Each structure stands twice: as structure tokens, then as C-alpha cells.
């Protein structure tokens, strides 16, 4: 009985330490997105295609807790802060880029398990209120 009690106590003490190590590992994984660049291709949904939208390519940059896209920035969408979460099998991120002339673009995406592919959606609400949706996919820039 005394051995069982000691084993249970040791187990109870070890569990919080293991959880703390997992949490620290998660924090380290979260910081891996910052400082990366991704070459993406954005593809309009079927509804957006009917409105005349087409594919475009851009470079997505995560730096200093901000998301920017090279071509989109030239079109009036400045860098914006992004948030990120780590789920059991992938890291997700979200950012809203706002342009006074072009509207608002909501980026929601994720990294694959190997962290070498990025995918997601872009929900663009133009300044006139029209909504356009794209999906995107890309790979890490070297």
C-alpha cells in the first residue's frame, strides 16, 4: 500500500511537469512561423470565378508578429499583426489586413504537419461591400 501511495504521489508530481514541458514545446513551435516566407498561389472559389476573379501569386511574410504579402502591400494592404494557435497536428494563424481603398482581407491558414506547406482561405470584403473568397496553397521560400 505504501509503495502504491508513493507511486501515485510521484505520478501526480510528474504530470504537471510533463504538461509544462509540452506547453513550452508548443510555445517554441508557435514562434517557428515568425521569420518565414511562403510562395503562395491564391485560387478564387467558383462564385468568385463567376465574378471575374482569377488566380494570383504572392509572397506571404511572417516577421515581427506581423503578416504581410509583397504584392498585396503594393495594392494598399499594409502588414498586420497575426495570431496563431497550435492544435494537436497543425499550427493555424489568422490576420486581418485593411486597406482604406481596397477593403479588408481576412487570412486564415495552417501549416501542414511537416511545416513545409501552407494553406488557407482569404475572405476579401471590398470597400464597396462585395465579398470575394479565395483559397491558397504554397511552400516555404528558400
Summarize, please.
The chain has three helices and eight strands. The chain has 142 residues and is of the alpha+beta class.
Beta-strand percentage?
A: over 45%
Count of runs of 4 or more consecutive helical residues:
3
Q: Mind telling me the CATH class of the largest domain?
A: Mainly Beta
Instruction: State the shape.
Output: globular
Q: Which fold name is given in CATH as the topology of the largest domain?
A: Lipocalin
| CATH arch. level architecture of the largest domain | Beta Barrel
Instruction: Tell me the span between the first and last alpha carbons.
Output: 59 Å
Report the biggest beta sheet as strand number plus sense, adding barrel if it closes.
Answer: 8 strands, antiparallel, barrel
Spatial order of strands in the largest sheet: 1-2-3-4-5-6-7-8
How many beta-strand segments? 8
How helix-rich are the residues, as a percent range?
A: 25-40%
What structural class do helix, strand and pairing data support? alpha+beta
Number of separate structural domains: 2
Task: Calculate Rg over CA atoms.
Answer: 21 Å
The ordered string of helix (H) and strand (E) elements is HEHEEHEEEEE
The average pLDDT score comes to: 83
What ranges have pLDDT less than 50 throughout 5 or more consecutive residues? Answer: 4-30
